[in-house]
């Protein structure tokens, strides 16, 4: 089926108070696994290609075109998104190639430069019908504001959204990038405050370190787009270790990559069910979203 716009997946999830799943592509095998998960569940999925992924593959177009081809050939509702892009040229290449959305990451710059850069690229993307996500500062694990103890201020976030015109905002509420244990506890009261204050959907980076129940509570409190990468990468690697450990004589990579691909498909499908099911939580997290405008 044709690619689904990221805006459609995110806005529909926000209205239904479920999570818009955004899982990262590392290589073709993970892209295949994630598409399989979406097909098995028929739950919308955003496939994310990060700048780190682009650097690993040497350039943007091969992995992006492969991911777009998988998404377009699938019967599942899938969008393709560029994640944590700091290079404006990669934004231009990706949107021109057919990607429907991008996270413009100018968070390492001083605030005013972040605003100016993000606003300029947002205007360029909007002129081409593309959806833009951004953030105020770097995510935890990268010496930034999404470290577990740091929090996004609602007033500052609202000023940033108004100044840049972005469509979604990544916020700091207690998660951290590259966590290998799912032990993070999020600030649900702050999520509710941000959800009430901002006219755009909230994005949770570093979700790999957040347990299932906490993710569902965060969604009920007002979080919408949920980014997961490290957890699924760990599932892939753990499977390969198990397969090679059981048969050290294996040399055909297909024989250990195939079960790893299936392991990621199974876990991604499980996570899609977790994120795509409305959470049952106390009424204190039932604040309605404000209208856009």
TrEMBL record:
<dbReference type="InterPro" id="IPR013785">
    <property type="entry name" value="Aldolase_TIM"/>
</dbReference>
<dbReference type="GO" id="GO:0008270">
    <property type="term" value="F:zinc ion binding"/>
</dbReference>
<dbReference type="Pfam" id="PF01116">
    <property type="entry name" value="F_bP_aldolase"/>
</dbReference>
<feature type="binding site">
    <location>
        <position position="84"/>
    </location>
    <ligand>
        <name>Zn(2+) 1</name>
    </ligand>
</feature>
<keyword id="KW-0862">Zinc</keyword>
<dbReference type="GO" id="GO:0016832">
    <property type="term" value="F:aldehyde-lyase activity"/>
</dbReference>
<feature type="binding site">
    <location>
        <position position="177"/>
    </location>
    <ligand>
        <name>Zn(2+) 1</name>
    </ligand>
</feature>
<protein>
    <submittedName>
        <fullName>Ketose-bisphosphate aldolase</fullName>
    </submittedName>
</protein>
<feature type="active site" description="Proton donor">
    <location>
        <position position="83"/>
    </location>
</feature>
<dbReference type="GO" id="GO:0005975">
    <property type="term" value="P:carbohydrate metabolic process"/>
</dbReference>
<dbReference type="InterPro" id="IPR050246">
    <property type="entry name" value="Class_II_FBP_aldolase"/>
</dbReference>
<keyword id="KW-0479">Metal-binding</keyword>
<feature type="binding site">
    <location>
        <position position="205"/>
    </location>
    <ligand>
        <name>Zn(2+) 1</name>
    </ligand>
</feature>
<dbReference type="InterPro" id="IPR000771">
    <property type="entry name" value="FBA_II"/>
</dbReference>
<feature type="binding site">
    <location>
        <position position="135"/>
    </location>
    <ligand>
        <name>Zn(2+) 2</name>
    </ligand>
</feature>
<feature type="binding site">
    <location>
        <position position="105"/>
    </location>
    <ligand>
        <name>Zn(2+) 2</name>
    </ligand>
</feature>
């Amino acid at each position: 089926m044709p690619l689904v716009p990221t805006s459609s997946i995110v806005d529909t999830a926000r209205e239904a108070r479920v999570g818009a799943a955004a899982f990262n592509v590392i290589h073709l095998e993970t892209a295949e696994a994630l598409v399989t998960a979406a097909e098995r569940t028929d739950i919308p999925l955003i496939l994310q290609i990060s700048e780190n992924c682009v650097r690993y593959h040497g350039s943007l177009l091969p992995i992006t075109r492969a991911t777009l081809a998988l998404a377009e050939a699938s019967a599942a509702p899938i969008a393709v998104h560029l994640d944590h892009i700091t290079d404006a040229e990669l934004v231009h290449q990706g949107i021109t190639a057919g990607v429907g959305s991008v996270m413009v990451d100018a968070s390492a710059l001083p605030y005013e430069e972040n605003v100016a850069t993000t606003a300029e690229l947002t205007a360029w993307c909007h002129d081409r019908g593309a959806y833009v996500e951004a953030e105020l500062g770097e995510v935890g694990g990268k010496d930034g504001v999404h470290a577990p103890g740091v929090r996004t201020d609602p007033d500052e976030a609202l000023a940033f959204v108004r100044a840049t015109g972005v469509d979604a905002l990544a916020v700091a509420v207690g998660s951290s990038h590259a966590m290998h244990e799912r032990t993070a506890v999020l600030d649900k009261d702050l999520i509710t405050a941000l959800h009430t204050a901002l006219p755009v959907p909230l994005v949770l980076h570093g979700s790999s370190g957040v347990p299932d129940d906490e993710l569902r509570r965060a969604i009920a409190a007002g979080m919408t787009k949920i980014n997961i990468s490290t957890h699924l990468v760990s599932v892939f690697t753990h499977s390969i270790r198990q397969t090679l450990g059981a048969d050290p004589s294996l040399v055909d990579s297909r024989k250990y990559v195939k079960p790893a691909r299936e392991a990621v498909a199974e876990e991604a499908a499980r996570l899609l069910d977790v994120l795509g099911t409305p959470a049952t939580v106390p009424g204190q997290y039932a604040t309605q979203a404000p209208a856009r405008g």
